[in-house]
Structure formats: structure tokens, C-alpha cells
Amino acid sequence: MRIFGFVVFSLLVTQGAVAQTTYKSWNNPDQTARSAVSDQKLQEFVSKLKALVDKAETARAADPTFLRDLRDLAWGFDRPWQNLVFNDEFIDGNYEVDPIWRVLAGEYWIEKGWGLRSAIKAQVATADAKPSSQQKKDAAVALLGQIFNQALGGKKTTSPQAPAAPTHAAIHTTAKIPNAFAIEAQISSWTPAGRLEIVIYQGTLASIPQTAGYRMAYMPGGKIELLRVSSRGATVMDAATLATPLEDKKFHAIEWLRHRDGRMTVSVDGKDVLSIADRGFRDSFSGLAMVNYGGDYIVKKVQVTGAR
User: Fold this and answer.
1) pLDDT digits (tens, 9 = 90+) for 247-306
2) Where in the chain is CATH 2.60.120.200?
3) pTM for the full model?
4) Which of 90, 133, 260, 284 could form a disulfide with 180 if both were Cys (CB 3.0 to 4.6 A apart)?
């Protein structure tokens, strides 16, 4: 009897161990559904509150200061971006499928376990640098070859030049993005130099610097900018410097929001850093691009949603 009990106990322990290694954590779908319903109801309440404030302002039915406070309260909970445009976490190891990203300049690749990466090595050149002995030998051989070529009646040749090092790397995806949008990205910065731009553009992406639209730029050291680019050129609309730069090789969450009335905010790791209102672009946008100017960046996630 003792032996039988020991066997039963052993089987139960073994099955428990198998269960621990076989079964995964379970998320209650009912709880997820309830969360989505709650978010929807909250948004409906906020929309109704904003509409009532608009009516009260038009009719002058309440104190302007009180109405402004109500509007600020509503804006704090306003999340009209409910339509998913696209979401890419680069976990499939292929950035050319769903959505389709196209490289316009430089190089991008999937860093396994990290995300979409782009790195541009800094080219250091010094005017007083002395050539090495091998460089001297190569130059002498090249000069001797030119002398023999000319002596034999050949044409003067020039030494082939090395291709210029890339100054930036650009990648983009086309998508119909509403004028009111939310962009969520997780980025990791690895070097103390460079500049990363997230570009939301209109029309055809022919030339990155001249393409019309908005862009959010981050520079190592913690500087962050929000720009508008039009036919008149680029204008920095708002800028700030983060208290803690992002060069720690960890991922940081960046959220860029644009409301229907033109208000835009940018937050880093949940803290608002930029806020500006601009009505320069009223139509929808044609796509999103990311541009690396001389840095080393990894993008783990990019999600775009639009307002209904």
C-alpha cells in the first residue's frame, strides 16, 4: 500500500512538472473584451462631454474658465485613434511583408531578438594624417604604371575613387494615414552621434529633405524636435531636451499624437515633452518613413492608428 501511494505521489509530481513546462500563461479573453468595451465607453463619454462644452461655449451658458477646465479634462482622456492602420514589431525577421517597407538609402536589417536596425559608421578624416608604408607602396606602383602606359602611347588614366560613404539611411512604407493619427514606436539609441527622424508625409516620397509633412527628430544627448516641412522649407515648431538621454541601449517608448484640431504632442516613456498646434496640413498622409543620419538605432515596434 505504501508502494502504491508512493507511485501515485510520484505520478502527480511528474504531471505537475510537465504541466509547468507545457502550459503557458493564460489571458482571460472576457477580461480583454471588457477592457475594450470600457475604453469604447470612456471615449463615447469624452466625445459627448466635448460636444456639450462646444454647445455651452456657443450659447455662453457657463463661465469660460469652467468650460476651459472641462475641455482640458476631456482632452486628457480623449483617445479618438481607434482605427489600426498598421502595426509592425519585426518579429518575423522580414520587413518586406505586411507592411511592406522599402529601403530608399543606406542599409537596414533585422537584428535577431531586437528589431529593425540601421547603423552608419562615422568617417573620421584628419588633414595631417601620414600615409602608411603600404599606402606609399601602392601609390608608387600606380604612378609607375601610369608612366609606362604613357611611354607606350596609351592614354592617361586616373586612379579609381572609392565610393562615398553613405550619409544617411532611409526606409518607408506607404499607407493611408488619417490627418489625426497616433504613432507609437519603441527605439534604442546606441551611439552618441547622429539623428533619427520619424516622418509622416504627403504625396510621393521622392526626396526625403523636401517631402511635405511632419517629422519628429531625436538627437543623441536628449534633444527632440517637432518639424513641419512644406514648399517653403523646414520649420522647427517645438523643441526640448530630455532630462535623461536615451543612449543606454535600452528601448524607450515614443508616442506622437495628432488631434483633429491640429494639436500635437510627443511623449517619451509616458512623459509629455512636446506640445504644439498646427493646421498646416489638413488632408490625410501617404505614408511613414524613418531616416537615420549618422547614428545607430534599433526600432522594435511601430504602430499607427487613426481617428474615426
Assistant:
1) 999 999 999 999 999 999 999 999 999 999 999 999 999 999 999 999 999 999 999 999
2) 81-121+166-307
3) 0.67
4) 260
Q: Which residues pair with 177 in a beta bridge?
A: 285
CATH 2.60.120.200 given to domain 81-121+166-307:
yes
Q: What pLDDT digit, counting tens, does each position of 55-93 carry?
A: 676 767 667 777 666 666 555 556 689 899 999 999 888
